[in-house]
Amino acid sequence: MTNFFDGRKIIYLFLGLILLTHILILSKLIYFPYPELFIYPYLTNHGLKPYSQIIDQHFPGLMFLPLNLDNLGMTTPEIARIWSIMLVLATQLMLFFVGKEIFKSNTKAILVNLLYLFWQPFFEGWVLWIDSFLPVILLPAFYSFYKRWIFRTGLLLGLGIVFKQVLIPLAFFVLICFFWKDEKFKVILRYLSGLLVPIIFMVIYLLVIGVFRDFWYWTVIFNLTVFAKSGRGEIPTLAHLFRVLLVFGTPFLILRKIRLTEAQILIIFLTGALLGLSTRFDFVHFQPALPFAVLAFVYSLGSFNKSPQAYQAWSGRLKIVGIFGYFLILFWWLNIFYKGHLGNRVIAFDSQIKELAVKIKDYTTPGEKIFVFGREPHLYQMSETLPAGDVFVFQFPWFFQVAEKRILEGIIRDQPQIVISDRTTEIENQKITDFGRTIDQYINENYQKIDNVGTADILRRKS
């Protein structure tokens, strides 16, 4: 009986309870798997070339490579939710393992898991996007760096960059760290060799399929010009900033331990992962940095105990007050969060979208070319159709600035029999009939309504 209640078994019991609770929470929240994760792999597997015919600004990851989410089986929102849960469970297990290594304490490691349980759903953990995949790459990279497995560190960071280019600053910070510590050239070379392996394979693949020039334009030039001016999204409110400051500001108390190797590595990974927010401020983009934020926060709690003796009593009281305030705010925010996010709604996959997909199937044959204007782009995937003109782009204003003419030319060339049009759509307060005016005019002149689902009209080409 005594053995059953030993400390290690209790810790593992707590870990199991945390994992089960996390599964339950994610299964009860509303859910939003980004449409890109469905439509891009689908179109890739149906012969369209990424960046040349499938216009996008992200590195390929599991969307555009031969091994992608579509042929891995993630083709419905139900399967996507399972992916989300598995990614979070893997992150939790990695956090416990890494926490044990850093803190040399099972209790502190469990505290990290508990904080991740609190904050992961809050920072749009109910969303599945590229950022959701990054923690399961970054945590092994962090551990490899901590253990001085140099090549493996580079290899994992290179893999992360193939998923999303916002990790380039983090890879650069790690390189600077090697220079700062006066590492031998062979150490730096080993790191760079690992880093470049996934990137070189990606470049070779893009060259072989003949799209590297398009890749360079959309992922570099477009991002630094058109998207930088038009696609940044809304400015965060003070409420958003305060939430971020609590969760991602308090971990920088670890600077009190900056001379320690663990603190230095945590700061590098936390800062590098946060730089990905230079694109847009959506909460889901904080997911890659969140594991390092909770690790750094727990690590920083011990720094007050190292204060000079004259200040230890004062700093101890301050720590108690600070922790009490932290958890008071946490539970207040979580109460508000769960009131607004519990439910069975699946964004972009509601009953109306499913009905529209079924009707499109009724009017088309599998593989037929149609055009979707102002409605969810993954309707192609849901209806087993393809975009007219063999060119696809998300209908955002910043994309249409560059690609609208090409889209229209494709429609005119292929003359699809069926067009789906929703002229009520607005994206970031801009009407699609304004920023897609020429396409809208062509549709109105050449197509007539035969059916509708809600505000979406199903149109057939005039004879």
TrEMBL record:
Origin superkingdom: Bacteria
Protein name: Glycosyltransferase RgtA/B/C/D-like domain-containing protein
Keywords attached to this entry: Membrane, Transmembrane, Transmembrane helix
Transmembrane segments: 12-34, 79-98, 110-129, 149-180, 192-218, 238-255, 262-279, 285-304, 316-334
